[in-house]
Every structure is written in structure tokens, then in C-alpha cells.
Amino acid sequence: MRVRTLELAVGGFMLIGLLAIIFLALRVSGLSMNASEETYRVVAKFENIGGLTVRAKVTMAGVTIGRVSNIYLDQEDFVGVVEMDIYQQFDNLSSDTSAAILTAGVLGEKYIGLIQGAELDNLVDGSEIYNTQSALVLEDLIAKFLVGRVSDEP
Amino acid sequence: MIDRIAALGRSGLELLEALGRSGMVLFHALWAWPNLRTTFPLLVKQIYAVGVLSMVIIVVSGLFIGMVLALQGYNILNRYGSEQALGQMVALTLLRELGPVVTALLFAGRAGSALTAEIGLMKTTEQLASMEMIGVDPLRRIVSPRFWAGAICMPTLALIFSSVGVLGAYAVGVLWLGVDGGSFWSNMQNSVEWGDDVLNGVIKSVVFGVVVTWIAVFQGYDTVPTSEGISRATTRTVVYASLAVLGLDFILTAVMFGEL
What we know:
- The complex is a heterodimer of chains A (154) and B (260).
- Chain A is of the alpha/beta class.
- Chain A folds into 2 domains: 1-31; 39-143, no CATH class.
- Chain A has helices at residues 2-28, 138-146, and strands at 39-46, 57-60, 63-74, 79-87, 98-103, 110-115, 128-129, 131-133.
- An 8-stranded mixed sheet of chain A has the order 7-1-4-3-2-6-5-8, with no helix packed on it.
- The longest helix of chain A has 27 residues, at 2-28.
- The termini of chain A are far apart.
- The relative contact order of chain A is 0.17.
- Chain B has helices spanning 2-31, 36-50, 55-79, 86-124, 127-133, 138-176, 181-191, 194-221, 227-256.
- Chain B has 260 residues and is an all-alpha fold.
- Helices cover 86% and strands 0% of the residues of chain B.
- Chain B has one domain.
- In chain B, helix 1 packs across helix 8 (194-221), helix 4 (86-124) packs antiparallel against helix 6 (138-176) and helix 8 packs antiparallel against helix 9 (227-256).
- The interface between A and B is medium-sized, with 26 and 31 residues.
């Protein structure tokens, strides 16, 4: 009987360890079970991506509809290229959708906000979003403000 | 003068010799693994001794460390009006650093010292020698299951520690101090990466588990067979294991999260 309780205790210990790793995976790190959800890839070019990072959210009307999958520099035009994976269920975004790099709160993390356009064609895998608005860089804004050119800007 | 230099040289040689012996003990302990059928019951018993009995101290200290982190973090973050970042701060601190390191230190004190004292007493009372006499390899029967139990239990305990710490932080931050529960979890989930943070923490704790158990088992196996020798070996286990954990933690952090 002694051996039995011992094995039960060890089994319980292992079980608690397993529960701990499941808790850490799902609740703390937000690893979703359907991580391999179907997505399609869209690219957008920004003059300045600010502090946008890979895996940042892509939202429309505040709802997360995708993730940023890759960021690199276009070495011909010298603009930042952002590749994003949009979940397949949102397949009716119009081809003139506009993208802006936004900030959550004053000092929060950067994310991409999409605004639906009016065209009848839809974005498909590999399309590019032409209508983009760069990240707001605080230093640029302050510099403009200091030289009094804020009101002259369009 | 010559005596001093000779003593220095002797202590250097002794250190090298001890390192060699500990390497041999580790090698034999690993070599003994394949004999699964006879080793498994011994392993279960050691997991009970090393892991299950350490759980109370791990859970209690995890809970309190999580609660203190939440309290301290809240006071500082509140000054900048960003107390929503509390969950993120606590989770990253626990998963990356405090979980593995504090668990390893507690593990060295709670389980490592017990391992050393047990094996040391076995050696002092010549149980190990008599085992050899009847043809049982003490490294295989005594050292190997203890070593593997330590290497298995340490990551498990670290995971439990981190989880309990996060729950403790939730209790203090959300239930007591009134941080919004939704932003507590969502900020945490946005910033904690499964591979970068959770798995790196697990890798750290596996390394610490191996090192702490190795030191504990070797110090016990290599003890001077007197009661004084056992006490010295036990002290050495805790001191060496703690120093090794803290030193290795710096190196591992530099490799995992630093610029290396």
C-alpha cells in the first residue's frame, strides 16, 4: 500500500506539472490551439514603420484580423515593407483598403489598423495595400512643432 | 614560501582531480540509464523524495514572490499610469528569471542537501562498499535514479513556481489592488512568447536541475566518511550549487536574451 500512495503522489506531481505548462502556454503566453489557422499574405509599404514589431496585431475597427509576419527594408525605394497574415475568414477586404500604423495608448505598442475601402475587388494572397499612413514618430512631431511648421503641413 | 606554492599547486591538482571524479560519476550515472525495468521503480521513489516533497516550499514561495512582485510593480507602474502592464511585467520576470533561479536555489537547499546527506551517510556507514561487495553497482542503483529524478523534477517545479506566481500576482493585482483583469491577461498574452520566454525558462531550469543534482550527488558520493565530512559536504552542496546556478544564469541569459 505504501508503494501505491507513493506512485499516486508522483503521478499527481507530474499531473500538476503538466497543468502548469498548459496554464503557461494557453493563459500566460496566449498560445492558441488553432495557431495554424488559414491566412493569406498582404504587403504594405510605409515610409516609416516606427516601432512596429513582428507578431504585432493587424486590426480593422479594433478587431484583430491578423498578425504582422515579416518586416524588411525595400532596398530600391528605401521604404519599410510590412508583410501581414490576414485570417482567411476576412477575405472580403476591398483592394483599396488603407493601412495605418497606430499606437495603443500614448506609449503603448504599435499595431496596424486597416480601414475598408470602396472598390469591389478584394485583397487576395500577395496583394499590396497602396494607401498607407506611416507611424507617428514623436521626435518628428516635436521637431516640427519647435520650428513652427506644424500648421503648414498638409 | 615554497610550502605555500606547494600548497597552492596541491589545491589546484585536488580541484582538477575532484572535477575529473565528478565527471566520471556523471558519466556512470548517465551510462546506467538504459536498464529501464529495474531503474523505473527506483526513479519513481526518488521523484517522490526530490519533487513531491519539495512542492510545498515551491508553491508557498512562488505564491509569495508573485504577490510581492505584483505589489512592488503596482507601486512603480501606478506612478506612470500604466498599471495594466502589471501582468506583463510579472509574467516575464517569473518566466525568464525568478522561476528557474529561485526554484533552483530552493531546490539546492531542500533537495540537494538531502541527497548529499543521504548518499554521504550511505558511504560513511559503508553501505555503498557492501553493495559493491554483493555485486550491485552503487552508481547505477543509488546515484543514477537520484540524478535523473533531479533533472526531471527541477523543470516541473520551476513551471509550477511560475504558474503559482502568476496566480499570486493576479490575486494581489486584480482582486486586491483593482487592476483591470482583462488587460492584465491580454497584456501578458501579447508580450509573453511561447518559444522565447516559456521554453527558454524551461531550458534554463533543465540546466539548473542537472547542475544542482550533479553537484549534490557528487558531493555525497565523494564525502569524507566521517560525521564531520557529511556536514561539510552538505554545506558545500548548497554553496556550490547556488553559486553555479547564479553564474550559469548570467551566461544563459546572455546567450538567450542578450546580444550574443
